[in-house]
Amino acid sequence: RKRFLQTPRAVLFGLSPVVARLPGLLCALGTLAFTYLISRRLSNDWKAGIIAGLLLALSPAFIQGSLLLDIDNTLLMLVLTGAFSEFLRLEDRLQSLAVRAYLALWVCAALWVKWTTIPIFLGSYFAYRWLRAGVRRALGEVGSVSVLAFLLFGVGYWGYCAYQGLPALTPFQYLLSVGTSKFYAGSGLMMLG
Q: What DSSP character marks residue 152?
């Protein structure tokens, strides 16, 4: 199989504990910056941004995540806070197709990091837009960004699997089988099969 991006930081910087922790630290700093921007935009007060950043920076899970490259505590946090910050920054310009395409790229990046988390993120943002702009507008804005993001992800994912010679449906089949078996087991129904 072909290798995709074989440890570029090891090639560039060598191997050491500092280099191993550098991506986690950079993700943490980016997440703190986005957290500041989100809080400042929601409150219109820079002090709220500072307080939110400090509270996050002092969180034990955040500190632990900044020391390791863990998908949930580093990369996913960075991309989700970045996406939400950009959604907030551009919420007055969501009528533009270019803005929606740009936001779809953020959602697509989040899908690449951990695709099972994104429906929760999009649902939360939909609820936020519903409260601010009404249900029809929220459906149009968040719906179009979501569709475009999933299309971009799908094309990229299928292309990556084809390039690597990997079966593309395996993760989805596993999720479906686990999800349906838990649903039927929890409801007392028997699965026929």
A: H
